[in-house]
Amino acid sequence: MASRDSTSRPLILAILLLVSSALSAQTALEQVEKEVQRLFEATKPSVVQIKAIRENVMPPLAIGTGFFVNSDGLILTSAQVVSDSNPNDIQVNWGGKKFDAKRIGFDQRTNLALIQINAKGTPPLKFGDSDTVRVGAMVIGIGYPLNSTISPEVGNVSSIDLGQIMRFFATSHICSTVRVMEGQAGSPLLNTKGEVIGMIVAAESNGSHSYAIPTAAIKIIQPDLVKYHQPKYGFVGIGIREETVDPQGNPLPQPKVLVEHVYPGTSAAMSGIQKGDLILEINNQPIHQAADVMNATFYLRVSDMMTIKVRNVKGEEKTFTIEIGLRPILPPKQLGDGIPVSQKQ
Fold it and tell me: What are phi and psi of 248, to 5 degrees?
């Protein structure tokens, strides 16, 4: 017959392991908490609150967040905060002081805007590599919720998302569980190194998820806003349509992307590409869905050369070379690449 000591020893060991695990988990959480606090304290001097008086728009006062991108007072924020205001009716709260700001430029398509205050030695946030962001990564948003004091919001990347049905961003955004409220549009989204990997531009209607335009896209748009006060997008010259079912309504094994429209006078029109062509590749990258086309073309600049491989209605595979033109200033829906999202529904 086993002794009481021999029968109780496994139970004692199990309890010790559970206690040890609980203590380890608590210690880990405390370390995460301290790291979030450290990152917040290190980066909050670079984040500002923005108030703009809007013309003929309700409500008349727009409130948002922004952050410095250089040492000369240049601030990146959301276009929805400042685009409807008089260029000089913008105020920035930074370091307990109020500064008048001027609008440098904005882009409704990506919801980006640049404003500037008359100040030197402003602390810019460092940009990280948004291309390395993976689902599950911890991220931190820093902003001014509900016209209150600056605060951090921690979450995780849940997807690299283009948008919801019939509502598209111009390129894939970082979707995370960072919850945002009014006043936080334009907040920087940081990785665990304190680097900016995106700027928050949209949210689900219930606030459960937010969407940040990645720094890779910001780096394309920001120089144009400084130099031209508006973006200089490349334009392929085609509209696309994604099909997910066959003519009988049965689901396809995978989506396919067809040329829906070829715009007259563009390099695409002169290349020979036709409406109804099935898009197989762009610049040697396979195309499986509309998001692939939008991501592949968003980063193209005027005068770049692009190759596109298609299969026409006769089953023939052809490759065309297209010179990228300047995107017309037209509503994106007319150009066949979706509707920019200011707030997800």
Answer: -90, 0
Q: Provide the token pair at 53.
A: 């008086």
Token pair of 175 as six digits: 């979707």
Lowest mean pLDDT among 152-156, 206-210, 297-301: 206-210
CB atoms inside a 10 Å sphere around CB 286: 11
For every residue of 176-240, DSSP letters joined together read ES----TT-TT-EEE-TTS-EEEEEEEE-TTSS-EEEEEHHHHHHHHHHHHHHSS---EE--EEE
d(CA 101, CA 39): 27
d(CA 336, CA 293): 12
List, in order of start, the domains of the chain with CATH numbers: 29-229 (2.40.10.120), 234-334 (2.30.42.10)
Residue range 165-194, pLDDT digits in tens: 445 788 899 999 999 889 999 999 999 999
Contact 269, 263 (CB under 8 A): yes
Task: Tell me the C-alpha distance between 337 and 238, whole Å.
Answer: 9
